[in-house]
């Protein structure tokens, strides 16, 4: 970095040795004399290090009550119903909660990774569920070269691993980086985010020392807003948070003192076990540790017991004083599913649970648009804390759409006790207590009133031609049980499915209602499969009695159907029930490249850019009887 910018500097003293006593088995806030920091290691202590990526959900157990909400659905041909932009590469989101609102920043290019031009956008939400249309926060950066006849005009991408900083004086800063992560970009920019969803001027806060092109924005210290200047200085003086800039800035002349004196790592994040003990996480399973609040760090080393591919990992201390790691638990380069592991001490993690297990078909082709929910980020320490104890994380799906998940804390995979859900006591129409919800923009799932009843019901709507709505209820493990619920059909433009699944997500029992209102029970043939139809705008009580030891069940739908001693479709004990507005797809083969080869152009899917006629189905009075 050039001397023309007055950066504060901190000399990082390399020290891998700490002093003070350590008690084995206790969170090591104190270490023995001459014991290296590397002795403190993150471990995944469970047996389930990885999951089956032949299935989108990895056949994982869900983190009970998790809700997946789509922030942005990319749309090239009809940008007015998306982001007013129409670009189809959207990736690397970051999250903050400030002044009563969620803020999400993400990168965008017209169609692919590292494809100019690149910009950054911000979306805003009061509740994390319904989001205002995003606004461009860092526009296209043009730079100029002399040419023989005319000035040559070029532009660049953006690449940053962090976005937000809530300063000690209360200001919200947003950062971006013009250029890639090869160390030769233009530099880091900053501006203030206003509560009314407007922004202050753009400034450079660090410019690459070797950059020879034009500088489009002034240095931040030229701002007349001294509180803004103080907020920027506070970030620059923070030896922990600024490591988030290291990846793009590793060739800076002061990199060893301003960041770390080690070989460059990617996508830094951190969480604190105490004021002094902090854990740093990177891509490629690399970790670092500080015992003095960030003045000195251990040399990056791999955490061998954690398995994840090339995407990011996120670590966070939770409101109940547990810890969470969110990542793709695979032993290959796949970026699905997205899971969460929890820990009581911040070092030993267990109980991997599913956060997001859906990988809809990529609608648009683009360079390096790898499929799956990936590049996860939560709310960094100091960047706000939403109401409630939930863990909120953002990520992209297939580098195309931006999503957010709300994960209840404490994180659990096990349901205990009977269930009786009539939805009348719900305090929110969008948060369905105890249910796992998958909710794309065009597939609302909510609690609302139905004209034929005086109470509330759980309703799934779907007008998305390439995705579906889904509601899942995890059940107590029972060899024998009876489930019942009421079913209401408002409209059907796609088949509606009810699956009773085992712990791997395999359907033991499945029945559906097709577009013609015909009931189909999977596995029935011949005379047993007599055609029966349901009427729209009527309620139908459904009862399922099962015996897992006999792998059999009975099903009754009002007075229309009563089938007994039907056989399970797979082996196992029912673990959850799933209501879904589309065909089962979790075993669909996911191709990294649509064409099968990164050197060959792919294609866009037709018929995915406008809503279709809706499917709308409601359920009520869901119960387990034992």
From the structure above, extract its key features.
626 residues; eight-stranded antiparallel sheet; eleven-stranded mixed sheet; disordered N terminus; globular
Percent of residues in beta strands:
35-45%
Count helical runs: 2
- Estimate the helix proportion, in percent: under 10%
Strand order of the largest sheet: 23-24-25-4-27-30-39-32-33-34-35
Q: Radius of gyration over alpha carbons?
A: 26 Å
Number of strands: 40
Structural class: mainly beta
How does the major sheet shape up?
11 strands, mixed
Mean pLDDT metric? 91
Low-confidence stretches are: 1-35
Short description:
The chain contains two helices and 40 strands. It is an all-beta fold and 626 residues long.
Characterization of this structure:
The protein is mainly beta and 626 residues long. The chain is 2% helix and 35% strand. The chain contains two helices and 40 strands. The protein has an eleven-stranded mixed sheet with strand order 23-24-25-4-27-30-39-32-33-34-35, with no helix packed on it. Strands 26, 28, 29, 31, 36, 37, 38 and 40 form an eight-stranded antiparallel sheet that branches. A five-stranded mixed sheet has the order 3-22-21-20-19, with no helix packed on it. Strand 16 (278-281) and strand 17 form a beta hairpin. Mean pLDDT is 91; it is low at 1-35.
